[in-house]
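Summary of Year 1 activities. Much of the first year was spent building the evaluation harness for sequence design. The harness presents a backbone, in tokenized form, and records the residue chosen at every position. We chose the following record to illustrate the format because it has been used consistently in internal testing since the harness was completed.
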């Protein structure tokens, strides 16, 4: 494949992946680009775009086609996140991910980090509040409590509680208190991931509703 054609195909895949993320609520960049490649009948990994390229196309897609709808969706996701954070205030909740950075679309996952040294307390709280949840784990990129999260193979894992809401899934990652000093990484480009506590999200929502000057 010629260099010019490879670049065109790469951009087409990025655009298709962005559309899937915007319209279908796909949050995983790797899955979106693989699915986009299949839809375009491209099975060559070397022409798959980077996450950063897809994020650029995602922002452009939202600005062009969802300029009226997406801000309303984002605001609803943020309000839903705030309610959850206020409920879980004792566990030091912080909002992060696409709902915070503004790229979240319809039915996007909301990512909230809880900083507590008692995973059991979180589970008991959800049970006592009669909040349905499912449990899972995800790889950790930083060092967390070894006793709680280190598997036999030596890899670090982070417990995740998933709550199902009308606005989409809320994923609660349970981290050790000391890990509040360790910044995570953005999936798009590996840069430092932003996060906001409850007061920060309240201020963010106030900006969402602030009338233009």
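For this record, the design step produced the sequence shown next.
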């Amino acid at each position: 494949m010629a260099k010019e054609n490879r670049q065109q195909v790469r951009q087409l895949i990025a655009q298709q992946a962005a559309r899937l993320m915007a319209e279908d609520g796909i949050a995983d960049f790797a899955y979106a680009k693989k699915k986009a490649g299949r839809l375009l009948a491209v099975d060559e990994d070397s022409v798959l775009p980077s996450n950063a390229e897809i994020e650029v196309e995602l922002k452009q897609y939202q600005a062009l086609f969802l300029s009226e709808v997406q801000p309303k969706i984002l605001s609803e996701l943020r309000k839903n996140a705030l309610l959850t954070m206020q409920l879980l205030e004792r566990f030091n909740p912080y909002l992060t991910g696409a709902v915070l950075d503004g790229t979240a679309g319809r039915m996007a996952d909301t990512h909230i980090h809880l900083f507590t040294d008692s995973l059991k307390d979180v589970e008991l709280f959800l049970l006592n509040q009669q909040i349905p949840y499912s449990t899972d784990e995800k790889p950790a990129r930083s060092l967390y409590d070894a006793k709680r999260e280190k598997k036999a193979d030596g890899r670090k894992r982070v417990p995740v509680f998933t709550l199902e809401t009308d606005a989409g899934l809320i994923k609660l990652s349970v981290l050790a208190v000391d890990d509040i000093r360790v910044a995570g990484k953005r999936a798009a480009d590996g840069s430092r991931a932003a996060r906001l506590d409850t007061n920060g999200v309240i201020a963010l929502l106030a900006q969402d509703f602030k009338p233009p000057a």
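Residues 3-24 form the longest helix (22 residues). Quantitative recovery figures across the full test set are reported in Table 2.
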